[in-house]
Structures are given as structure tokens and as C-alpha cells.
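Summary for the steering committee. The consortium agreed at its last meeting that each partner would contribute one worked example illustrating the joint modelling workflow. Our contribution is presented below. We chose a case with several input lines so that the handling of multiple components could be demonstrated. No manual editing was applied between input and output; the record is shown as generated.
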Amino acid sequence: MSRPLTARQQHVFDFIVKTMGEFGYPPTRAEIAKALGFRSPNAAEEHLRALERKGVIRIIRNTSRGIRLPNQEPQEALDTAASAVPANLETPLHTGLPVIGEVAAGSPILAAEHIDRYCPLPAEYFTPKADYLLRVRGLSMKDIGILEGDLLAVHRTERVRDGQIVVARLDDEVTVKRFKRQGHQVTLYAENSEFDPIEIDLRSQSLDIEGVGVGVIRGGNGQALG
Amino acid sequence: MSRPLTARQQHVFDFIVKTMGEFGYPPTRAEIAKALGFRSPNAAEEHLRALERKGVIRIIRNTSRGIRLPNQEPQEALDTAASAVPANLETPLHTGLPVIGEVAAGSPILAAEHIDRYCPLPAEYFTPKADYLLRVRGLSMKDIGILEGDLLAVHRTERVRDGQIVVARLDDEVTVKRFKRQGHQVTLYAENSEFDPIEIDLRSQSLDIEGVGVGVIRGGNGQALG
DNA sequence: GAACATACTGTATACTTAACCACTTATCGA
DNA sequence: TCGATAAGTGGTTAAGTATACAGTATGTTC
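What follows is the complete predicted structure of the assembly.
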């Protein structure tokens, strides 16, 4: 596993736990900074990232107070919080498939900071096995039932065949399309008549294949259905 | 105390409790609005104020996610919420959700002989919780991304609201449609321009609601994706 | 029938917050 | 002495969020 927390990191963690118990919601960066005496919220931010790297918290990106303690049962988390020192920090807090939200330009898809949460489904549920779930943006694949907000199960591979649904990186943007190749000419088809196919000449443009779509999940975690 | 909550206020309160339990922090106005189907966050705001007036929550001003449930013991909050919701039918003891294939005419959906297999996903992954997965036949709902062979996660209930995707039994046939009711007249809409809506007069025809759709899974067990 | 509460839509604004960038200081092991 | 890590300061920006204001519609109460 990872290294134990430093003293300062432990202070930050304790404050999160205390805040959860006291107010029922996690603190903001600014609140952490104030409580710990930092003059900059950035100090809190970096501590949070360290805590996440070490697996003791989870950060929900772009969400105010988006800090989660590992315990599966949040109510248990509160109880634990009230009384105890975090004893088993080394406990793996995630099982299942990582859900990838926004992917920052230039960074690998599976970077820890892209992981929104985990879906408790074994990778082998899909064939070939899924390596992660990618949150779909836009409606370019709606004609084959892949809608905005859906989770696309993705099998990591660079070897794709014509007609497969692929996750590709084009100009640092991650996109889901149907793949077709003729020599050095690749066409990425949207499944939506309002979108035009994308033509790529591999001699002049770069195209990175991140994987193939192997499944779709919709409706988890309160997402609407319809 | 003050007057009891209205039905709508109860919905909002339940959603807050659910969010607290699921994520460990309270929802924002916008999240409430989205979950309850409001188009304006102000609707959520006014519900929150009503809930505060009636003493069931406390609002911390100018604070993101500043909603507190009064109960010191979080478990109590959950109990309250649970009891406010109609009793659930049966809790499956096996792990995973049963997958229902063909449903024989005249027999209950959840009869053992209909269960194809189990999908290793907790019922609570969906909201409200899924009771089973129904294998979809036909393309009548393709415009909202529900295709043939998909597994529709279904929450068992007879209480459905306009616009929801319902599993209904009509003339002993199980069908998935969008529900709309005006008095004793029910219309079941397909989401596919090639299908006509089905009109039912409850005075002369019987319509059994088996549940509402809460999610979709595609691609499990080798099923193709596109 | 006026007064009031509920239950919203729609728009706008200002505050809150997460997240980034550039930079500094100190410690520790190689 | 170099590089890596920890622990910050200070400031910026865009997104997230609470909240006010102006309406509409439908009931219930007196």
C-alpha cells in the first residue's frame, strides 16, 4: 500500500472527520485552511490530494465539499468519526470499476484525478473485460443508445477492428465513435445524423486509441432515466 | 411541532436523507431540482425553507450544501425517512440482481422460473433501488437509448408518476413504456416514432403497473455493443 | 371572493468554492 | 550537492451555489 500519513496530513484528515461529525457535511478548502492556520486554500488542496493519493479519502471533482471518507456506510463513517482515530488507513476503499468523468487534455485517462467514483461491478462482467467506465458527453452516439451521462464500459486496447465502438483521443480530446480504417485513412463515425464523420490521415495526424466500448450503464447514482 | 409535511416536501426531505446516506454530504438546490424534476433551483429553495419552517431540517445560510438534519444520531434520520417511504416488498438475500428474461403469460414477473441469471450489482446502485433487471424486447424505446436485449433495472412499485418509464402488464403481456395519466385515461407512449401510443381506459381495461425503470445495462455476458 | 399557502418557471446576481499557476522554504536520503 | 517530497504563501479564474425577484397556477380557508 502507500506510506502512512504525515503528522500534518493526519491533522487535516482529523479535521475532515471532525467536521463531518459536527456539521454533517465535509469542509471546504478554505475552512480547512482556516482551521489549520494556513493562509492559502491551496495548502489545503494539496493536503487533500496527498490524502487521496494515500487512499484515505476520495475527492469528488468540481463539487463543493466533495470529500468522502472511505467507509461504505456513511452513517458508520459518522460514528467512527465521532469517536475514533482512523485505525485501518490501509484498507482499500474501492472495489469495482473506476468511473472516469472529465479527462484533462494531455493526461492519461486512468489518472487518479479523473476518477469520480467506483461502480461495484466486476471487470469480467463485460467481455472482453472492462478496465474503466467513461462518462459519455454529448449525443453523438445516441442512435445506438449511448446517451449523455451514460457510463461506457471500456476495454483498454489499441487493437481495434472496423465497426467497433472506440474511445479515441484526437487533438487531446477524448471521444467515442465507431471506427473504420482503410490504409492510412481512418474514419470515425458518429451514430447521430446531426454529426459528420471525422476523417483522419494517419500520415499527418495522430490518433490514439484508448480502448473499445464493451458495455453501457445508465441510471446509477440518481441519474435520471428518460 | 408544526403541520406534517406535504407529499412533495416529503420527497425533497427523502432525497436529502438519501443523498446524505449515499454521498456523505447534502445536496445542492440544483441537485434537488434535477432529482425531483424541477426546472428551477428556486423550487428546491422554497421547499427547503418550508422544511426548515416545519423544523425537520436546518439551513446554514450562505454555505454550499448547508443543510443539516436535526437528529444527532444519523440512524434516526434514516429510520424516519425509511418509514416515510412505503414498505418494500422483499429484500433479496442472494447477491446481485435477478435477470428476468421471458415472462410467461399470467405468472408473476419475479417467479423463479423467469430468472435467467444474476447480475452482481447491488440493488442500491440505482435510485430508487432496483428489484430486478428485465431483458428488453423490441425497439419501442430506442429513442431514449433502451434497445433490444438491454437490461432494464426496475424498481417495483405501483405508484408511478407522469413521464416515468414504467413496466406495465397489458393483456398479460409485459411492456416498457412512458406513462401518462389523465383521470381514468392512461396513455403509454413508445419512444420510437414508428410506434403509436397505447390508450387505456381504466374503467373498461385493466392495467397493472409492475414498476418503474431506474437504469439500463447493456453489454453484459458477451452481448454486442452496436 | 379575498387572503393565504403550495408548488412551481424563469432570470439574474453575488458569493462560495475548487482548482490552477508561480514561487519559496525546509527536510531527507542518495 | 542534487533531486524529491513536504509544506507552505499569494493570487487568479471558472465553475458551483445560494438566494433574491418577478411571475403563474391551483388549491384551501374564512
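Chain A has a mean pLDDT of 78. The CA atoms of residues 189 and 197 of chain A lie 5 Å apart.
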